[in-house]
Amino acid sequence: MNRLGPSLATRWIIGIVVGAFFAIPLVSTFLYTLRQTDGTLGFERWAALFDPAGSAAIKPIWTGLGNSLILALVTVAIVLLLLAPTMILVNLRFGKLKPIFEFAVLLPISIPAIVLVVGLAPIYLQIGRALGTGTWTLAFAYGITVLPFAYRSIQASIDAADLRTLAEAARSLGASWPTVVLKVLAPNLRQGLLAASLISIAVVLGEFTIASLLNRQVFQTAMVVVQKQDPYAPAIFTLLALLFVFLLLLLIGRVARGTGKARS
To answer: 140-179 b/e with 16+ CB inside 10 Å = b?
Structure first.
């Protein structure tokens, strides 16, 4: 009986093509950062990041990176404290509202960022008057931007777990709703919650349009400013950001596998 799946050679070809698609730009960027002033290859550009004499030139990047990390934490908090409990509530108590809720949550992915900014500009005018113009306030806009990606990650875990049975069993034993969500449902949704957190961090670190149009200094906008003076520093920080997200992905995969083994 012939197998319907692709042959071993086909899988190897697909793997090599996809791997080259991602690896060639990264390797090229890395080799670009190794160019020294004398024309040879070395880590002179990387060492310059920690040179006090040149720290003033790349200071905007460090400031923008700090702002982006704060934004990432606030955005993850919005996803975990607002979106996830709302999704659990909709799936358990308001099943008829699920199609409407899903449509509303997935809508931002179809709206260009520049259109979102046009709608958010008057809102941020009021936010600036009430809460100030700190960069952290961008988390409200980023929370909307990451909704479609975080929703899909969490919903996949919800579909894989029998939340209704777990919730009813915990309630029948006298557990309160906060206890049910935190100690019964959340551990079963840990993989989806971790994936949603990772996606939120990646989106925040890579977002440029909203921050630029709302005149906030974040990682991406700072790299554009520094690139006009030193094209090597933004390339190095881009590689470091990709490495950071990759390590987070490995960490989440390890935690998820550990959770699966423990559950088994």
So the answer is: bbbbbbbbbbbbbbbbebbeebebeebbeebeeeebeeee
**Cβ atoms within 10 Å of 38's Cβ, excluding its own:** 7
For 166-209, the pLDDT digits (tens) are: 888 888 888 888 888 888 888 888 888 988 988 898 889 888 88
Judge whether 24 lies within some domain. no
Location of structure tokens 């993989």:
191
Rounded to an integer, what distance in angstroms lies between the CA atom of residue 41 and that of residue 24?
A: 18
Residue 203 belongs to what domain range? 52-263
Residue 59 domain-assigned (yes or no): yes
- Using DSSP's 3-state secondary structure scheme, residue 120 falls into helix
Residue 11 lies in a domain: no
Q: What does the pLDDT look like over 7-42, one tens digit per residue? A: 778 888 888 998 888 889 889 989 888 888 777 888
| CATH number of the CATH domain containing 220 | 1.10.3720.10
Q: How far is 255 from 135, CA to CA, in rounded Å?
A: 31
Asked if residues 87 and 154 have their Cβ atoms less than 8 Å apart, the reply is yes
